[in-house]
Design a protein that fits this description.
Helix content is about 35%, strand content about 15%. α6 packs across α8, α9 packs antiparallel against α11 and α20 runs antiparallel to α21. The protein is globular. A seven-stranded parallel sheet has the order 11-12-10-13-14-9-15, sandwiched between helices. Strands 16-21-20-17-19-18 form a six-stranded parallel sheet, with helices on both faces. β13, α14 and β14 form a beta-alpha-beta unit. With about 725 residues, the protein is of the alpha/beta class. The structure holds adenosine-5'-diphosphate and magnesium ion. Magnesium ion binds next to α11.
Length: about 725
């Protein structure tokens, strides 16, 4: 039996692009640079813009400065050599009965072979020349004929795209809305278009549409094959401006798919967690350690605070408490602007867990931040009779006063509250009974670390804290498997920080301001991007800076802190700054988070153009905490990139973390902003989280609904496969 011809050709999606017709090994290397590795990649490599070459204009109707497409007959074609033989120009004159158009190609004499007198060609390009001159040229043509016409005064096009009319079945570059692809070395834009045309024609019909049909219907989404064809070579949808904004129906379908697969993965992860049993904290008050009644611990702590909680803090703690009572594992995101008081709320929740007899931990992204939290929390919980332990890679096996080690305290259960870095999730670390875990500054960790931390206990409740406030829908997506709490209120007494960009000629003014703040009894941060000088980049560094400022301010006490110092030395500097023994603290970004010195009223950021927006905002959040007029001075060193200018301007204009996060997102793009790849989430290649937020919302709703009624995707095996391949490497998180 010959089965062969009945087998439908399949698209081997991961076929290396090298084997696509017209590519080969050399071109495949060039395509790699565009991120195109496989046949599938090339089908999803969308045009970055479109040109309407559909409506051919008569030559007389062309408009200067516009990109136009016209059709005519070759009147003459010749190579001209410029004086002194510097350049060879190939010049073609086209006529269509309404006028003449001169086309020129520079130093491409081989063009000659494409143009023969009398041939019909379509040309697309930007029109140069003057219409009034053309009109006069046309008038003179009526009387005197071709020979007397001063063609140089008519319309011109340089390096136009062209196609011969004989090929009327293959209008790739003209007579249609044409796609323009970002080309790369080894390809002209035109060759790129030909390649895409052939690829799309040969393979797009072999793509399998894996989305449930009812979802497509409900949301009026086009079939996938149609969408791929139409986004590359539009035939049915002709609105060029919509296409250029990426909102044609073809785009919409592809964007929906990206969001849907992202959200479906998140939905299934969330579903799986919800189906597990967690700890009900109120119910376990009689377990080991239960004698420290939860109510007493929390209320003792509240009474010891020198301030009242803000309404937002109260509301959020209420939300967390509700979750903690349930015997389901909590997975909650706590976000809010820098300084809104997240740590206090996290601590209250940790105390709730400790009061019920469990251990609670807090994981921070850097050693210095962990140390900060440790010092603050130990101080704040002083008098509650709890043991607080610090675990970092340098402290792990360091003996502590009673002769044991932090690791031993954690496993024996003598440590109630454990603060640490990612050391907490290392193999060797065993908790006695971890019930509650806080992850600070989530954007620096990913989904994976969260899962690892969860494994350290028996489904502990997890609270993720981030100071990168983002719009709710985005938060729902980025942290799509989490519930969300927002502290949208700053404690009273916070003052907006005056922020100003400076350049080095104005540094005298900056020094004066620093001096006057210190004279008033305030303290100052000076932040550098580097610890030590770099020979390659002419950058200022913290070590040199500290020396320089000792000379500039000989009467002031100047301290230095950076990440390469020993933990003990850092602690000495920190407490000296806290107690006011240091006036000016020169630092690297180690102080980005967690530093809480209300007396500091001025921050100078050197080479501010080198910092990201989120980082600048975090740094600035260190000041303006004490009710004093506060200043953030951004010292920039030209030349500044456009992005850098924008970042600095945003900093001058607003202190609102939400606005800053949105700006940051639009400057950096979602991939980098969210670190999606690092977080193990599928990439968004086509979708734009800001532009396409409506589609995101729909996709999310559909994905969560599907996860509800078919969590194992039993009825959708194709979709299930696709989902697993998109969430490459993160399968175990989805598989139940
Ligand atoms: P975040 O972690 O959200 O950036 P923190 O929790 O570090 O903010 O709080 C910043 C500072 O504000 C800390 O000194 C903290 O003690 C203080 N703080 C927190 N809540 C309040 C409040 N309700 N009223 C006054 N000060 C507060
Ligand atoms: Mg914090």
């Amino acid at each position: 039996m010959e089965e062969k011809k009945t087998i439908k050709p399949q698209l081997p999606k991961d076929t290396p692009v090298q084997y696509v017709k017209g590519v080969g090994p050399k071109r495949a290397q060039f395509l790699q640079r565009l991120g195109i590795k496989t046949l599938e990649d090339s089908l999803y490599y969308l045009p970055w813009r479109y040109e309407d070459r559909k409506n051919l204009k008569k030559i007389a109707e062309l408009t200067c400065g516009n990109l136009e497409t016209t059709l005519g007959e070759v009147s003459s074609a010749k190579i001209i050599t410029t004086p002194r033989k510097r350049m060879k120009i190939f010049e073609v004159v086209i006529s269509d009965g309404t006028g003449f158009l001169k086309c020129r190609w520079f130093n491409q004499p081989y063009m000659e072979k494409y143009f023969k007198k009398g041939q019909k060609v379509i040309l697309s390009g930007v029109i140069k020349g003057s219409p009034s001159l053309l009109r006069s040229a046309l008038r003179s043509e009526e009387g005197a004929g071709f020979g007397s016409l001063n063609l140089s005064s008519g319309f011109e096009m340089d390096n136009p795209d062209f196609e011969h009319v004989e090929d009327n079945d293959k209008f790739i570059h003209t007579k249609r809305i044409i796609p323009v692809y970002k080309a790369t070395e080894g390809f002209t834009p035109k060759q790129m278009r030909v390649l895409m045309f052939n690829t799309v024609n040969a393979y797009s019909s072999l793509v399998t549409d894996c989305l449930p049909e009812d979802i497509l219907k409900r949301n009026k989404l086009k079939p996938l094959q149609w969408a791929i064809k139409e986004t590359h070579f539009p035939e049915e949808f002709n609105d060029v401006s919509a296409l250029n904004r990426g909102i044609g129906p073809g785009h919409t379908r592809l964007i929906f798919d990206e969001f849907f697969l992202l959200e479906l993965g998140l939905a299934l992860m969330k579903k799986r967690k919800v189906s597990e049993k967690g700890i009900s904290f109120s119910a376990s008050a009689d377990s080991p350690g239960g004698e420290k009644d939860k109510g007493t611990l929390v209320s003792k702590f509240l009474n010891s605070l020198p301030f009242n909680l803000t309404d937002a803090q109260k509301r959020v703690f209420e939300e967390i408490s509700e979750d903690m009572k349930k015997d389901l594992p909590m997975n909650r995101l706590l976000h809010g602007d820098v300084g809104c008081g997240k740590t206090v709320v996290a601590l209250l929740s940790m105390l709730t867990a400790v009061g019920s007899g469990y251990q609670a931990c807090l994981m921070a992204p850097t050693e210095i931040l962990a140390e900060q939290h440790f010092i603050n929390i130990r101080k704040m919980t002083n008098g509650l009779g709890l043991k607080t332990t610090l675990l970092t890679s340098s402290s792990r096996n360091r003996p502590v006063p009673n002769g044991t080690t932090p690791a031993a305290e954690i496993s024996s259960g003598s440590a109630h509250i454990i603060i640490g870095t990612h050391s907490l999730i290392q193999e060797q670390i065993k908790f006695k009974n971890l019930g509650f875990a806080v992850i600070d500054e989530q954007h620096k960790f990913g989904v994976v670390q969260r899962a690892d931390l969860r494994k350290k206990g028996f489904n502990p409740d997890i609270l993720v804290m981030t100071a990168t406030p983002i719009p709710r829908t985005l938060a729902l997506t980025l942290y799509g498997d989490l519930d969300i709490s927002l502290i949208d209120e700053l404690p009273s007494g916070r003052k907006p920080v005056m922020t100003k960009v400076f350049f080095s000629p104005q540094k005298k003014n900056v020094y004066d301001l620093i001096n006057s703040e210190v004279s008033k009894g305030r303290q100052v941060y000076i932040v550098y991007p580097l610890i030590e000088g770099s020979e390659k980049l002419d950058l200022k560094c913290a070590v040199d800076g500290a020396e320089a400022f000792k000379k500039i301010f000989p009467e002031r006490k100047i301290g230095l802190i950076h990440g390469k110092m020993r933990h003990e030395d850092r602690e000495v500097v920190m407490s000296a700054f806290k107690s006011g023994d240091i006036d000016i603290l020169v630092a690297t970004t180690v102080i980005e988070v967690g530093m809480d010195i209300p007396n500091a009223s001025l921050m100078l950021i050197v080479h501010a153009e080198r910092f990201g927006l989120a980082q600048l905002h975090q740094l600035r959040g260190r000041i303006g905490r004490g009710g004093y007029e506060s200043y953030c001075l951004l010292m920039a060193y030209p030349p500044l990139s456009e992005d850098a200018k924008r970042r600095l301007k945003v900093m001058e204009e607003t202190g609102d973390g939400f606005k800053i996060a949105e700006e940051d997102l639009s400057i950096r793009g979602p991939g980098e902003f969210f670190g999606t790849r690092q977080a193990g989430m599928p990439d968004l290649k086509i979708a734009n989280i800001l532009r396409d937020i409506k589609i995101l919302e729909t996709a999310r709703k559909e994905a969560f609904a599907l996860a509800d009624c078919d969590p194992a995707l039993i009825n959708y095996p194709l979709l299930k496969n696709l989902l697993y391949s998109k969430w490459h490497g993160r399968l175990e998180l989805i598989k139940s």
